[in-house]
Amino acid sequence: MQIIIGNIVALIASLIMVYSGLVKQKKKIIYTQTIQIGLYVVSNLILGGITGAIINVLSFVRNVLCYKDKLGKKEKIIITILAIVLSLAFNNLGIIGILPLISTILYIWLMNIKDVVKFKYLTIVTMVLWLVYDIYIKSYSSAIFDFMNIVANIFTIIRLKKGKQISVKF
Questions:
Q1: Rounded Cα–Cα distance for residues 5 and 155 (Å)
Q2: Is 59 exposed, middle or buried, given 0-12, 13-18 or 19+ CB atoms closer than 10 A?
Q3: Which of 159, 118, 151 lies closest to 20, judged by CA?
Q4: Structure confidence at residue 53 as a pLDDT band (50, 70, 90)
Q5: For the segment 22-47, what is each residue's pLDDT rounded down to a tens digit?
Q6: How far apart (Å, rounded) are the C-alpha atoms in residues 16 and 149?
Q7: What is the distance in angstroms between the CA of the first residue and the CA of the last residue of the chain?
């Protein structure tokens, strides 16, 4: 039962991740991603993924600080140091195990980008790193949603550059 509940929570988080790729406004993107990350924390804890939960907690804190415009240099340094220490302490996959850390560091230091299109590019790069990682660890359902998020962000960039409205209703 625990595995089923954990996977249901992860599925909901993944669906929210894809939805965030269709959102055009940065504040709403950050808000949506924060909900998604919170659900991944819960899912990881239910499924016993302690290191995933730790990194997602750091990502949750990062997003809350960014949403409130309080993600300054000091906060970024602290989160980066924690991410590095925790990732290196619990990494058992060599270079592949470092991909989430690279993604997290890129995102922490560049997430204050004001331009929505550039922010979408950042999301694509970080998701490609997660896609490679998820395929390597055989997390195929996560990989599918990573890929869908990449596609959704590409679609949104194209639509934004063409100046067309994007309408997504849930």
A1: 32
A2: buried
A3: 151
A4: confident
A5: 888 888 888 898 999 999 888 877 86
A6: 10
A7: 28
